[in-house]
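Q: What does the assembled structure look like for these inputs?
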Amino acid sequence: MKPARFDYAAPDTLGEAVSLLERHADDDVMILAGGQSLVPLLNMRMARPELLVDLNRIAELQYIREDGEWLAIGAMTRKRAVEESDLVRRRQPALLAATRLVGHPQIRNRGTVGGSMAHADPAAEYPALALVLGAELRVVGPGGERSIAADEFFKGYLMTAMEPVEILTEVRVPILAPGTGWSFVEVARRHGDFALGGAAATVRLDASGSFSEVRIVLFGVSGAAVRLGGVEERLVGQRPGDALFREAGATASEGLEEPLSDVHASAEYRRNLAGVLTIRALGEAVARAGGREPGQEERR
Amino acid sequence: MSVQIPKTLEDFPNSAPRWVGRGVPRVEDPHLVTGRTEFIDNVVLPGMLHAAILRSPVAHARIVSIDINEAEKLPGVIAVVTSDDARRWSHPEPTVPEEWGTHCLAGDKVRYVGEPVAAVAAVNRYVAEDAIELIAVDYESLEAVVDPVKAMEPGSPLVIEEKGTNVMLQRVFTWGNVDGAFGDADRVFTEKFRWHRLGANPLETFGVIAQWDPVDESLTLRASVQSATHFGLGRAAVLGLPSNKVRVIAHPHGGSFGGKGGTRGTDVTALLTRKAGGRPVKWIEDRAEYLTGGGGQAWDRHYEVSLAVKNDGRVTGLDVKLLDDMGATGEGFGAISTAKPLASFTGPYAIPVARYDLTIVATNKLPQSPYRGMGPPPHNCVLEQMMDIAARDLDIDPAEFRRTNFIPKDSFPYTIASGNEYDSGDYEAVLDKALALADYGKLRERRDQARAEGRCVGISVVSAIEPGVFDWNAYAIVGVQGTGVPEGATVSIDIMGKISVRVGFALEGQGQYTLATQLVADYFNVGFEDITVVCLDTHSAPPAFGPGGSRLGVALTGAVLGACGKLRLKLAKVAAGLFQMDPEQVDLVDGKLVAKGVAGVEMPMAQVVGTMLARSDLLPPDVDPRPEATHVWTAPGRTEVDEEGRAKSYLTAAQAVHVVMLEVDPETGLVEILEYCVVDDCGTRLNPATVEGQTEGSIAQGVGAALLEEYVYDEQGQILTSSFMDYLLPTVYEVPATKKGIVVTPSPFTPLGAKGCGEGAMHTTPAAILSAINDALAPMGARATEVPASPNRLWTLIRAAQQPAAGE
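A:
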């Protein structure tokens, strides 16, 4: 289990990295961030780049900052840093909750925020989180910098809107607005595994207690994390309740396109899970929107 | 005067033993925790090459051609071997059952995904792996045999054509009047079970450095090998070398659990070193190789089990039909796992008659290997499910149902229907302690309350036997020969009074060097710092098997104490000469040689040894001036098998009761273990900390078996679980914290009364978890009969139970 031969470059600055990619625009280049997915792929020779550009020495890509209504997170920020960030804990608890579900501490010590986003694994937590929170992803390439909304960024199974010569530099996550309820739940065979399925939700309730805003994302159940636009629309204006959640779950389950099937769970199982998780995520998010912390009376 | 092996600690020549029976810190650990243990991959020899093995990507295909030209031309490649070399320099692999083997490199065809086809030795592993990509193999696809039932049908493709069948073994063993028992039963229960393929996954995979000596045509193997002697004999047979021309140096290794086979890879590496003119070649099995082509797969079973029961709750007969999917060949010796259940066929119960209808079938999958427990864990699991099915139907509490059927404590030694003899036990005491530890009454209240809230909670109370101290005769029904498994140790004292214990097995993790140190320290009344334990190579070691079959704690105790006893006699003789007394009048006491009944006439042991080695002028004329002794211990009283496979085989029978409470999430099928209590009786605990470690690890593996671990093959025989992303081992998050209790019923047959305990809870945990799941599912009328009980499987069962009309 040794990788095939490749060239290796480890630039110290973002500028150097960008010009490297530009110079090798015609070569098969891969970018190494935390390496938690790419290194195994290299070792199994499933990834065989000609050139590996290692971003780990670029200090300027490691930060977590408050920037107006956003948290700005450098792409090379380790997940462990997110987990331990006081800023994240105070400003975006959903990000903290999602981070704790990523693998194990050893993985979070190396894995990066940008790496997860750019890899776009359908069962990964971060793409789902970006979608549900409406994150923005900043990329830089030979043509300069651009910002891509999460809804536009994730294009399907391990696919993003980035060009091969572009580097993801920053993930911008909106700070949780007061009164917003959120949930991030998943079902995995073992703690820390890629999820058999997961759901993320944010909700806001109006003065009458009805939904004024709802966002729901499912991940791990199909080829990419997916927003449940139809379900969201039907919930807005309705009063939360078990019957409504069950209806939303049934819609999510029935509407799931091409559920994944593998050695861990059948497509049928994942279709069921889509509904179960939608119901659980809505329940949690509504509880939090009402100022209650879910789960005490409820079991995980 | 013959050597006396102490039956108890009171028999030691020591008035105040300090070490045996205590959870002392292990002598192995300082090296392990500082990274100084010499694992095989740390070893670098001058001129050493690195091997990579090209493995079959398909399950069943004819090999039309192999072209190695491009690989041989790659700079850094020194040797490439194919089946031509295998046929020139080796014989087919030895197997169980016999003659179900092939050469170490596939010749005319490949028979499973992962089978070695060719191999390269190069200056490093990277180049070696580059080179195997350059080997062009032309495969002509054949229909794969994947389903063992179909494999038995006439007209099925054959895994090994020359055999004319895929059935490796088919035989019915009947012990007593089984038909009569079932005819007379008030109730008969029958159920089918499926135990999916799983197996050992030690932290370290297998590794070897092979070095051919072209001058005297001998082979040296440094390897992470569990049983060096037998490994060496097997390699000599395969490679056509005299047994004394294969030397094995066993290295400390990171566990085995049955997975450290490594035979085929070693044979391939031996071909490489020979072709490379004697340069040493290292082969480290990587994890993908281990999972798809190594020693990690076992027990791929289809069961149909019937139980004959009387209305008063007595079980009067057991009928087990087993179809085991062995994979392509018998080279992994996995078939012995179908034989071992005879050692404890009826579990802890006095079931008077039993039948075993055994079929072993070859398919295009990786050959099975042993795994911790070696076969009884699935057997116990299905037996315990049947016990619960019967208890539920009779409306008897599962704990009381078991109590009714336990072998009574006054009937030991007890011969079970399948012929083995249990040494001792007090099963009711273990049960009572477990029920008290679990607070069983409260536990049931908690379960019933949870159920009233609509939750799916279940409790189990199960029991199983752990046969200890394996014997070859236990595997006679699958063609293994021999009775008795000798284990030797040499104890030697040097002129400075320091003691060496020389054994024939390497460190594997179970703390046996600590055990040897404890025994010697107490025997001679010295400190741990005065003792060192050394592993010898196969040219110099006494007869030894090493760890395996829950034997080494007992066997090593016998060997070490036997050697100590012989040395005691020798030292007494020398001292008697110095004291000018009769040898019978002198004995070892508290590390000194003393004249019995004569105050003040004594000499420290070191001084006696010093006299032996440095004052020949003082020695009596007939003294052998070697302050060392070797003892080879073999289990007493073992017998040859009869025509129905019955024998006194495993020497000891440890017993355990596990009480588990868990919850199933009916919406997802996920299981959460809420309580786990274990009480076990493995006789005298020579090092309680080690026993506890074995229990903990074994429960972890049992959790993996019950809920997570499964090798999955598709209909083409392609393996779908070739990494730890898909083959799921339990982690610290999945393994429950346990409450533990102990009962001690010493074995009358072993030194110090210890029983084998190395395989431990693996015998009981899968049964306990599946039983608790079934208790949780019982109110909805569902029953889980497949292991592992994955979320998908449980959810499917629950959904079918909740919507009975939908599927009908």
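Residues 208 and 239 of chain A are 8 Å apart (CA to CA).
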